[in-house]
Amino acid sequence: MPPSVEIAVLLLGVLALETRRSAGALLLQETFASPNQTNNFVVDPVSGRIYLASVNTVYQLNRTLGVEVEKRTGPVEDNLLCHAPQLPQAPCEHPKSLTDNYNKLLKLDRDQGVLVVCGSVYQGFCELRKMENISEIAVEFPPQGEKTVFPSMLNIAANHPNASTVGLIFRSHGGGTRLLVGATYTGAGTQFFPKNHSKEDLRFENTPEIAIRSLNIKDLSRLFTYDINPSEDNVFKIKQEVKNKNKLSFIRAFTQKSFSYIAFNNDAKMGHKESQPNSLLARICLDTDTPRKPSGPESRKLTESYIQMPLQCGSNGNIYNRLLSVYWADVQADGGGGVSGSEPYLFGVFSKGDRRSALCAFRFADIEEEIRRGRRSCSNAPSGDVQVLDSVIQGSGAACIQKENLVLQPDQLDCGAAHLQHPLALRRPLRAVPLVEYPGLTSVSVDFVQNHTVVFLGSSNGRLRKLTLLPNMTSANQWTLKLPTNEAVHHIMTFDPKDRNYLYLMTSHHMLRVKVADCDQWRSCGACLGGGDAHCGWCTLENRCTIQKECGQALLPRSWIGISDGPQQCPSMTLTPPEISISADIKDVGILINGTVPDLIGSRVECEYGPGVSTAATVHLDYGPAQIQTCPLLPKENYHPILPGTDHRTVSVAIKVNGTSVVSGSFIIYDCERTGAIHPKTSCSSCLSTRWKCYWDQQNHLCVSTKDESRPHLMENPASCPGLVASEVPPSPSGAAQDFTLSLINIQEGEELECDFGTEQRYEASWVNSSIVKCSGVTLSTNQRSQIYHLNLRRRFFSGRGEDVFVDAPQPMRVEVYNCRVGSGDCSQCWGREDRGHLCGWCDNSCRPRDDCRPLASRCPAPEIHQVSPLRGPVEGGTLLTVRGRNLGRRAAGVTVAIGDVSCVLLPELYTVSVELVCVTGRAAHDRTDIVHVDVDQSGTGASKETFSYLVPKLLSMEPRKGSRSGGTRVSLRGEHLDIGSQVRVVVNNTLECIITEKTEGTMECTMPPAPEEHTDSVSVCVEFENLPCQSADLSAAYTYEKNPTISSIRPTKSYLSGGRTITVTGQGFDLVQSATMQVQGIGKTRCTVVSASILTCPSHASSQSQQTSVQFFLNEVLYRGDGPPPSDSEAEEDEGLPHNAHFPLEYVEDPQFFTANKEKLIKHHPGEPLILIINKGPSELELLPEEYSVTIGSYPCNISFHNDQLFHCTISGLLGSSDGELPVTVQVGNFHHTIAKVQLGGSELAIVVSIVVCCVLLLLCTVALVVYCTKSRRAERYWQKTLLQMEEMESQIREEIRKGFAELQTDMTDLTKELNRSQGIPFLEYKQFVTRTFFPKMCSDYEKSLVQPAYENDGLGPRALPETHPLLQDWQATNSTKPNMEEGITLFSTLLSNKHFLITFVHALEQQKDFAVRDRCSLASLLTIALHGKLEYYTSIMKDLLVDLIDASASKNPKLMLRRTESVVEKMLTNWMSICMYSYLKETVGEPFFLLLCAIKQQINKGSIDAITGKARYTLNEEWLLRENVEAKPQNINVSFQGCGMDSLSVRVMHTDTICQVKEKILEAFYKNLPFSQWPRAEDVDLEWFDSGSNSKLLQDLDNSSVMEDGRKKLNTVFHYQIPEGASLAMSLKDKKENTLGRVKDLDTEKYVHLVLPHDELMETKKSHRQSHRKKVLPEIYLTRLLSTKGTLQKFLDDLFQAILSIPPDHPPLAVKYFFDFLEEQADKRGITDPDTLHIWKTNSLPLRFWVNILKNPQFVFDIEKTDHMDACLSVIAQAFIDACSISDLQLGKDSPTNKLLYAKEIPEYKKRVQCYYLQIQEMAPLSEQEMNAHLAEESRKHRNEFNTNLALTEIYKYAKRYRNQVVSALESNPTARRTQLHHKLEQVIALVEDNIYECCSEA
Fold first, then answer.
1. For residues 1466 and 408, which has the higher predicted lDDT (pLDDT)?
2. Whole-number Å distance between alpha carbons of 1556 and 1553
């Protein structure tokens, strides 16, 4: 991943999920962050790749958004007024500057394998990049040197960042690929055009708004042109004079059926008629794969089929008039009966001026019907509903005119008719009702899932909403995902083509992959299906909520329950019995499973009673919706015991299928005895009322679970239980004796009972009659004000059981006991207790029971008033007056309150007996002051000491009177009596409240709320008292809400860690800001200062570490949310974050560093003198301004002057005194304080002494420095002399190395020449092998791997290779499967190929097919050459005719490009023809020098060290294969015998650095040098043994146990490793073929093995020089001279080869070359081509580059030799030199040119002269007549007769004829000559014979 992307990913903010209805139905999967703004993206439907275009960069991402390729596209030097630089001869006088490249169009063409990338620079220029690797250009356009290029071919997209462009790629049935483009006009008169430029600067006025362009990359001359076919009119262009009324902003282009739709807005209408729709949908008919009727025109005109209609979303003044995004999908609305009833809809997001937006849907059926109605109306009944679009150039002068008796066909209704070839516009809009309305929507995509329409909506504040629509298109559910950094969502969202459960969407700086459902959040089936998410369903056998694709068993019936099935289908279970007694003997429990569950027959079903505890279940019934099974119960002891205090335990049971819990339930194990025990006061009724069956044993007072004969008197009915009937008992005083009479039911008289009050004392109950008992003398006491006792009857008969046994008391009987002496502080409180039944009285100044008071006086003292509050209130009354005191009455009804004569209404609910009362003041007639009276019945009246005042409040002023709409403004109110009353409110606009923060009599401060409505400006502010409506004008004022302040930017955007840096905030409306706070995310807040209406300043907060963060602002304590309108209620619920423009980035970096000029810490200074300090600043990214610095010396400020960013002077003039001592020098920047040094102040005497000492020291230092300098100088001179000697020595070494190499090679070549003369000669391949390898190089390469690899048989004569075979070299034999008439058919086909008309038509017909690839063309040409090899003169005539057609096609374009490549049949035929004709010349003239050159290369390479793994060698011609290290190779001779070869031992020369495999290869070459290479054994197939002096043998191998390790790699064994001496004896033998061998050394892993050097030895050179100290330390580049050494030694052989190729031997002139060159000159004359360069290029392309370069690079085509990779690299350098020699252009070489071109740069001019001389000699040869050439060709045919299997070649050609049968027959029928001779019938006859269709054959005959 590139660093820029890594940083962007690291800076990605925290992602949060939000929802409205539930925990979230969307899940963010992957995120890719782009450093630059994103523009477009496209998804490959096959590979799943994503192509993302941003400003200046294009990315190729994988499905999970990982970067595969990144390509920069800008910035570039450009000017909006300049033509594209790709336009030839287009100078520009305007200055160019670096311009960002915004991507305007990104489209994928899979069929051609290209990505169309169009940018805003170069006037909207487009590139075609390779789909597999976007960093590579697929097609260079315009081609290099192309002259015929027009601006219209280059100006495709809009050339401005803010102008729109849409596109669409489609295929026409008759032509190739086409590109439909819609682009906003950006010329003069638009906002996009540069201002202050004249009309002459117009941007290409001919660029249309909509155009169809060619995108056929095989036809570069027409690429991006409009005139694909002369009969078409493929442009839609607005007239220049009405462009200002038609400002088209394109949204999207898409196809539906065979139509193209373009959605756009006409921005010229925006703002004029807000109630009118400005969104338009245009339709164009495309010529796609469906052919037109024969009677119709060839192709459809764009303007003929163009028709547009307005789209209206909303009605009745609430119209959303701007289209933002569209998406088309097949969904099912009302009326559909299933998926089959679905129909296509167009969904669109529309907006209006106030940021509100809506989603609308339009039926395509309605769109199509409107278009048909409009065309029918235009032709038959013209009306105002349709008109010709006269704003278009093609629409001039035509109108809708009624045509009598004209009936339009369906095709004409859809796509226009010939009588009206103009674009049409419908006037009446297509209307739709908004489905949903939200603020800030930007994009839409739709899917149809589980019979539900699911809509995804992106928004401008970074939200992705998901909606489920009901069939009536109303919203059922919605969820919201919060996206990173609150960025707006791009208007196009795309589903993953491989998995529609993922959605790709793009924001301004991110590419996101979102999973459409987060089903895991629902843990139960009911929650899953009730959640309303159509994507989620319950996976039964996995017991989880999933997407259907993620359910592993989803293919089984009833295994996945979708939302359409409903929660009622969730699995559930019913157990029988549901409750089991702990004493019951039940072995099994029955289970009924309901809901949707797959068949369980055959599955492993278990009942699980807990983790790891399960029993096997038995399935009894499994059909339909219910399944019945039984589960064995566990033994009772295996269950957890019933907990104390409970009578049952719930046992969970789950049904597990194949180990997974599918459904769960529970049953109850109960214990009746516990039921009675845990309810001792109601044991019988509790026992018989439980939900399970229990019985009551009255005799034993027990609850039992079973009824048997031994217990006949068990109770079953709760009504039969004995019980105590509760009755009310009046309260009794504490300590008084009392009797209690109790009623009983169902209890036998005479039973012994006791009254139990919960105390230790119990009282015997005596029977009064059969149902009443009495407890006498009960004394209860309490020391509390009141206490409750519970009375129960205890049965004494069971007292021996050790527990209390009570008579059932279903309703407890309560007894209240009170104490008069507690809680009554005065008379009123005491007597006031009477209402509760407490009989207390006041006597002796205390409260006592009345019986204790004698005499009893009920009158209390008069009331006392201690406090009244508040003391002031409004005259209107309503004040809550609180009065506190003593004896303020016994009850509320007996108390009356008044203020003077104004009553105050008592509030009983707030009355506290005797001590406090609250009343509401009445209305007074005027302001007054009076005392408060409290009148109490039977006690008298009390008066307050304080007075209460009725006052009239007034509001005198309010400041400020205006504030921001977001609220928070602190308002100060001034007036009179503003703090009176019990409740004061400040009400805004009668609905909102201004929150009071401070209140006094004359002033009040409150905080204003946000504006109540969006358009509210002026509101009333009123002070309300006591919740009474504001009616007085004296208490109200006007307040104005103004536009919120806006923040545009902050500067600087970086702060140091210490904080305190002044951040300047720029914006508008800050005059409304009273307080501002800057909050740094995750760090803290600081207070800001308002400087002006447009500037705030805020100090940055300190941070503990460097980090990238963001800041947000609180203006008037209200969070700033950007400059948009405040969020609506629906949006605020989910928008806890902020819109994208409310966060501002701030980066914390390290504190700045300062130091003095010399970094000294102590500076000495003489008092009284000026002090000047030079202070340096360390490197920093802060960009500090001069005013941010301050420097102090002690407490003295320093004057600062700046010289540059890194240095400033600090000056103090004579202020420092000697008494100051040491003063610190402190630099302050914000909160950062740093003492960089100290100034030491001293006396002048000390300064003199110091000066003398310093001078002495300086003198001494100068003397020492002089001595050191002299010593160093002499040493440097000696080192320089030594270096010169080393350089001379190195130069001498190189000179010696070249001389020795040349001398050695001359000797070696002399020996080689002698050996050649003695041997069998040069190993030429036979003619047939040469032909097959040349004609079918790829096929032969495959055959070499399978057939040509020798298979050896061991015999006494040594290895014998099996012969090479090739299908075209074998006899054609009919097999059993061959059809009976095949031979006859092939013979007839051969006759057909001999017909020139047939063959030429056949070739042209095949070449016109798109899928007839270049490989097919080459194969057909080679097969034709084999098939016609016996008739070369006929073959030549065919080739010439085809060449004439090729020349005609090339001459009209760029004739110099002809024959440049092999892309047609005739070009490959020419290659084959040259190979046939030049074989004899090649073998007789060129073969020997070529073979000697190959031998010389091999000899030279083998002369030095060769690394066996990397292949790099000491001697080479190719720099990449050069061994850049001085590895000395010492030669030595060894004596080798080859067992079984029948030869004596030979002496073989090897290098001591050779590996064992290299030694084997040299030995094999010595033994087999006289045999062709195909008959040699391989080095891997032989063993090599060494016999030392003791006759001990050792098997030599590249790797064995003795191998050593070097740098962690195993080193290959060499001759030096085994210490093999000079003249050693070795034996070689063939291996057993079954043995496993190491394989080829060069295929070994370079990470594990090493030979001479490590891989990439250039990078390891430094390490090696330290490790191998014995090697000389030389720069690797010094070894480049070895290239010159190798070149020098090979130069003679190369010159001989070029001389042989470029000369004309008198005994063997190249007749074919003369014949063909004359043919080329004749064709040039016919076409008036006189340029000699053109003829030179034609000749070069036909012979040197087409034939000789192929032979030079592939010697294995000519000789039976081994071509190693290293030799191939050397031959590439030689071939390049030959290519440069044939070129007419001069080589522009410099020091940075590649060495492979520099190596022969000196010889190239000489070689060029030879080539030109050769062409001149050919031209001067005597002309060759047709008869002479035909005779020569006939002789060539005769020499090689019957060497090829022509029938097989004919069969392969026939396969092409059969494959393209219809196209060939059609072409033959179109050719008059072929049709006259019935050639198409003959071809049909051939096919019928070969395919054995006799009937067809006879019928054709």
1. 1466
2. 10
DSSP string of 332-389? --TT--SGGG-EEEEEEEEE-TTSEEEEEEEEHHHHHHHHHHHHHHHHHS--TTEEE-
pLDDT at 1032: 78
Alpha helices in 665-742 (DSSP H): 672-678, 683-689
Tokens describing residue 1203: 């010289």
Rg over CA atoms, the chain: 53
Helix (H, G, I), strand (E, B) or coil at 1217: coil
Task: Look at the pTM and tell me if it is higher than 0.70.
Answer: no
Coil, helix or strand at residue 1292: helix
* Under 8 Å between Cβ of 896 and 934: yes
Residue whose structure tokens are 């070029």: 1698
Decide if pLDDT at 266 tops 60.
Answer: yes
pLDDT digits (tens, 9 = 90+) for 1143-1163: 899 999 999 888 887 778 888
- Our CA angle for 387, 388, 389, nearest 5°, is 110
Q: In what order do the strands lie in the sheet with 1232-1241?
A: 1162-1165, 1232-1241, 1222-1229, 1189-1193, 1196-1197
Tokens of 418: 């010939």
DSSP letter string, 784-843: SSEEEEEEEEEEGGGGGGSS--B-B-SSPEEEEEE-TTSS--SHHHHHGGGGGT--EEEE
Torsion, Cα 312 317 318 320, to 10 degrees, reads 40
Q: Nearest to residue 1008, comparing CAs of 991, 996, 999?
A: 996
pLDDT reported for residue 1275: 86
Q: 1504 and 1494 in contact (C-beta within 8 Å)?
A: no
Pairing of strands 510-515, 1018-1025: unpaired
pLDDT tens sequence across 1389-1402: 899 899 999 999 99
- DSSP-assigned letter for residue 162: T
Q: Which two tokens stand for residue 841?
A: 């009285």
Q: 1226-1235, 1487-1496, 1660-1669, 1763-1772 — which is least confidently predicted?
A: 1660-1669
In the structure encoding, which two tokens stand for residue 1283, read together? 């270096």
pLDDT at 1658: 43
pLDDT confidence bin for 1137, thresholds 50/70/90: very low
Q: How many CA atoms lie within 13 A of 108 on its CB side?
A: 20
Report residue 1731 as tokens. 């340029």
How crowded is residue 1575: how many other Cβ atoms within 10 Å of its Cβ?
Answer: 16
Sheet of 343-351: strand order equals 322-331, 343-351, 356-363, 436-439
SS3 content of the chain, % helix, strand, coil (to 5): 30, 30, 40
pLDDT tens digits, one per residue of 609-632: 888 788 888 877 655 556 778 888
| Contact indicator for 1373, 1412 with CB cutoff of 8 Å | no
3-state SS assignment for residue 1720: helix
Q: Count CB atoms within 10 A of the CB of residue 410.
A: 8
DSSP annotation of 1746 reads I
Q: What is the pLDDT of residue 1134?
A: 45
Query: How would you classify the pairing of strands 165-171 and 1189-1193?
Result: unpaired
- Edge-first strand order for the sheet with 1605-1606 is 1605-1606, 1609-1611, 1649-1650
- Report the 10 Å Cβ neighbour count for 748: 9
pLDDT tens for each residue of 304-361: 889 999 999 998 878 998 999 999 999 987 744 444 578 999 999 999 876 789 999 9
**Contact, 86 vs 224, CB < 8 A?**
no
Average pLDDT of span 1521-1536 = 85
Q: How far is CA 1634 from CA 130, 1584, 1639, 1876, in A?
A: 47, 17, 13, 66
Q: Which two tokens stand for residue 674?
A: 């516990």
